[in-house]
Amino acid sequence: MSQFQNPGRRQVLKAGALLAAAAGLPRIVFAQDQRLVVSDPGGPYTEAYRRAFYTPFEQATGIKVISVARESQPVAQFSAMVQTRNYVWDVTTLTISADIPFLEEKGFLEPIGLKAEDYPELLPEAITPNWLGVDVYSTVLAYRTDTFAPGKGPQSWRDFWDVEKFPGRRCLRRNPLDTLEQALMADGVAIDDLYPLDVERAFKSLDRIKRHVDIWWTSGAQAMQAIQSGEVDMISTWNGRAQAAIDNGAPVEIAWNQGLYSIEGWAIPKGTPRADLAKQFVRFCADAQRQAELTKTLAYGPTNRKAFDSIPAERARLLPTEPGNLQHMRLPSPQWWAENRAAVTERFNAWILS
Predict the structure, then answer these.
(1) How many angstroms separate the CA atoms of 57 and 59, rounded?
(2) Which of 98, 134, 136, 184 would staple 301 via disulfide (CB 3.0–4.6 Å)?
(3) Radius of gyration for the alpha carbons in the chain, expressed in angstroms and rounded
(4) pLDDT per residue over 221-238, tens digit each?
């Protein structure tokens, strides 16, 4: 190695700390170290998180938050960062049903030490030792009120499957998550009795509706456009996308009955050098006022129930965790999906093409 080679940044930091200690000076803090790279789904999420979490955290701590858009399915990237120790970001949003069980099993989550008893106002499903849920979205049934009178459209998945009583163009998600549960509820399974999923029964139910489905959507934007434009009359979609269509003037109504909610929140890739800063940020986002602020931009529910003290009643009625809405919905089993997702996804994809 050449003696004139530029020293690495880590060497400079170490040398600075040693010199400061030798001289009896305070340890040098480099401004560029006081930053945190946070990834989120982008688009309206970035705007909402910036307003509710990023800027207030910067103001409270002096730690700069740099936001980047993550991949739509972040688990593979998250896993690769931990395995290669090449950290593109320090904290990201993940969902409890689809992501956390797998990453916990692999040991890829940075220990945060969160305890449910320290956050009594949070939904109990919104906290694990290494993950904090901050917002809730739901997969719901929505329909056009220019096709069906308000309150007279399909109100359950059995109604959605009933093509004679509720004729119209239909749209479902091209993904087994939520769709298998909906198929079982359409076949008469109670929402509290879904797990373990009867996969054979679910696919038999899907066989009955398949030829009546006009669109199988693959992105939230596609789903919103389909119901907003009138391309379909009823849809299984995320409540935030249905609400966006309503906000844009579309004659759409949400039926919360038999909704399947998911919790989205923050986790830290194990080993990131800025883990301590990331843990500060995660804990900061549990705050009720911060979560209430989030709901002004996104129609997703807070996990901190005290946030509703600061949310106007008119807005609260549009959110999944409003008690009147939440009582009709359930959380898909994270454990069941962690164990079965690969197999049922392969089968579902083959079924779609058959």
Answers:
(1) 5
(2) 136
(3) 23
(4) 899 999 999 999 999 999
Instruction: List phi, psi (to 5°) of 234.
Output: -150, 155
CA pair distance 108, 75, nearest whole angstrom: 10
β-bridge partners, 128: 131
Secondary structure (3-state) at 40: strand
Q: How far apart are CA 264 and CA 283, in angstroms?
A: 15
Q: Which residues contact 298 (CB under 8 A, 6 or more apart)?
A: 44, 45, 48, 135, 240
Residues β-bridged to residue 68: 39
Cβ-contact 303, 136 below 8 angstroms: yes
Amino acid symbol at 29 = V
Q: What does the block give as tokens for 287? A: 């705050």
Type of residue at 245: A
Q: What are phi and psi of 64, to 5 degrees?
A: -75, 130
Q: What is the pLDDT of residues 50-100, one digit of tens each?
A: 999 999 999 999 999 999 998 888 999 999 999 999 999 999 999 998 899
Q: What secondary structure letter does DSSP report for 168?
A: S
Asked whether the beta carbons of 213 and 231 are under 8 A apart, the reply is: no
Lowest mean pLDDT among 20-24, 202-206, 294-298, 306-310: 20-24
DSSP 127-144: EETTEEEEEEEEEEEEEE
Whether the link from the prior residue into 176 is cis, omega within 30° of 0, is no
- Where b means 16+ CB within 10 Å and e means fewer, 257-272 reads bbbbbbbbbbbbbbeb
Q: At what angle do helices 334-353 and 176-186 cross, to 10 degrees?
A: 90
Whole-Å CA distances, 22 to 30, 119, 124: 18, 42, 49
3-class DSSP assignment, residue 210: helix
Report the C-alpha gap between 92 and 198 in whole angstroms: 33
137 touches 224 (CB < 8 A): no
Q: Which two tokens stand for residue 72?
A: 């739509």
86 exposure class (CB count in 10 Å sphere: 0-12, 13-18, 19+): exposed
Inter-residue contact 310 to 288 (CB < 8 Å): yes
